[in-house]
Amino acid sequence: MRGFWPIFKRELFSLFVTPLAWVLITTFLLVQGVHFFLIATQFAGEVELSADTGPVQVFFGQTILIYLPLLFVCPLLTMRLFAEERRSGTIEALLTAPVGATGVVLAKYAATLVTYVAMWAPTLLYVVLIGKTGELDWRVVGSSYLAVVAVGAGYLAIGTMTSALTKSQLMAAVLSTMAVMGLFILGIGEFIFPDGPAHDLCSYVSVWTQMNDFSRGIVDLRRLVFDGTVIALPLFVTVRAVDAWRWG
């Protein structure tokens, strides 16, 4: 973990001085703003709401607009982490510095995770506005954001790994998007396969079901274990890749 903080601060700074991060954040907030407006319009005339179909539940688990950022923002945030340094040759200076491979990987990954969380932070305003119009269960809000962060953290880990496997930012983004889309499509299988092993597997990895459950306050530890696995395995592969560059 040597050298974690200097690399973390450098990576976080480099993310926010490039136009890409600001374009992503602006686009993301515009999409989520439209998302919130559509939901607010939908529920404006509702008098009675069931516990499972309130604005918070719909915002976090029942529309496609919550999944688009997860599928596309994460690959774009991570595509440059290692690919750009390898392409430009600056990775050599990083590898010869007294910094462990684990510290390098975790610092870069943590910088993108902080950026990702910062993108979601302004959406708390939408939740506050919902609370002004009626009773709000903050435990449900907390579990919903927990799911957003857990799923996003896994996708960012996949993007970190793909960035370490190629010198092209575009290829890293494409590979990451394909992997994330593959998991998403596999999860949709729970609506296709009948009860059985295939259905259970698809349900276990389904981000759709996870977001729906957590947006209703149902925190399933099995899904958090899966999210942890999706985070840990790609980061482990990335650390091994960085080690291979150093000693290869």
Provide a quick synopsis of the model.
This protein is mainly α. Helix content is 76%, strand content 0%.
Helix content: over 70%
What kind of oligomer do you see? single chain
Structural class: mainly alpha
Number of helices: 13
- Basic shape: globular
Radius of gyration: 19 Å
**Which residue ranges are poorly predicted, with pLDDT under 50 across at least 5 consecutive positions?**
none
Please, what is the average pLDDT? Answer: 86
The end-to-end span amounts to 21 Å
Strand percentage, roughly? under 5%
Largest sheet: none
Number of strands: 0
What is the string of SSEs from the N terminus onward? HHHHHHHHHHHHH
Commentary on this structure:
By secondary structure, the protein is mainly alpha-helical. The chain is built from 13 helices and no strands. The protein has helices at residues 4-16, 19-43, 55-61, 67-78, 83-88, 91-96, 101-120, 124-132, 138-164, 169-188, 197-205, 207-214, 221-247. Helix 4 (67-78) runs parallel beside helix 9, helix 9 packs across helix 10 and helix 10 (169-188) crosses helix 11. The radius of gyration is 19 Å and the shape is globular. The protein starts with a helix and ends with a helix.
Write the layout of secondary structure elements.
Blueprint: H1 4-16, H2 19-43, H3 55-61, H4 67-78, H5 83-88, H6 91-96, H7 101-120, H8 124-132, H9 138-164, H10 169-188, H11 197-205, H12 207-214, H13 221-247
